[in-house]
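Possible regression after last week's pipeline update?

I re-ran a chain I had predicted before the update to compare outputs. Posting the input and the new output here so someone can diff against the archived version. Not blocking, just want to make sure nothing changed silently.
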Amino acid sequence: MSDARTARAEAMAGLQIPAELLPADGRFGSGPSRLRDAQVDALGSTYRDVLGTSHRQRPVKDLVARTRRGLAELFSLPEGYEVVLGNGGSTAFWDVATACLVERRSQHLAFGEFSQKFATETREAPFLEDPSVISAEPGTLASPVADPRVDAYAWPHNETSTGVMAPVRRPAGAGADQLVLVDATSAAGGVAVDVSQTDAYYFAPQKSFASDGGLWLAVLSPAAIERAARLEARGDRWVPAFLSLTTAVDNSRKDQTLNTPAVATLALLADQVEWMLAQGGLDWSDRRTRTTSGILQDWAAGREEITPFVADPAARSQVVTTLDVDEAIDATAITSVLRAHGVVDIEPYRKLGRNQLRIATFPAVPEEDVAALTAVLDHVLDHSA
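New output (post-update):
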């Protein structure tokens, strides 16, 4: 570390941020994300008698039913599409999809940590051919290419590690028997989408849906449900019950999961979905995240020390903003002084290894808190030179 950078870091360490500059809520993490106070309060009031009760009885099944109905409305489900849920998060669904949705060979777009992980799962599956992987450097976007040799296309709607957002549309020239599997973990609920362009739009609830982990949810097309049933019935690959998509579909239609779910997670999720619908649904959420991420991008444009990591504006996420910090300034010093003042979780993705800030603007984060965050960052940068 240079002497100048060390001196700036030392100046930041003793810096006090005026209380009037601080956001009302200092949580800007990319997951787990900020929960609204009303959600947390409801756990101890509305859901007090549901927590700690059987997941096979009506009160918990009603939570599952509310969640499925709410998501169906939020995503304007096309005819025949279903909301399915199961134990485990998006990582578990990669295994579910590997076992039950990829027939022979998949194509993956890999432009960050999480998109690469799904490609690794299919590559290691002994019953599948090696996948086709189209890679792009972190901070840039890859695009699918129609390929008759594959039966499933897979990519993330939003790459949480880098702040790159991808379009959700079927590849031009893709066949009717080729599925589109979109990992929507950090985009679902915060970004407008036409789910008819997908066969599995899947996610976990700890991002835009302001809940805890422990569940995966998927909007599935009839084609996806049919393929899972056919592949599982063939008997030429072992599909454990925990990873069986057909089992998850059957249980979801009964408003339950195979194993005991985290009931608090369900309660937080159901409450958040209904709150989103009351605000105006997915259109409202999309407008809010565009506005809040826009505040950050506009702020970065006015600071010579800050550069958007994603150079192409069209590929920049509206729910996870990644901003490079000039090498003369230690970004960890910035995040440390903010953390000491209750503004937390704006560190970069650990494996990316960049001098960077990563700031989430999920729907529960209001415009005034994002504006306050930029004022706090201005104060730190201006008083540490």
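Follow-up from reviewer: compared with the archived run. The mean pLDDT is 96. Marking as no regression found.
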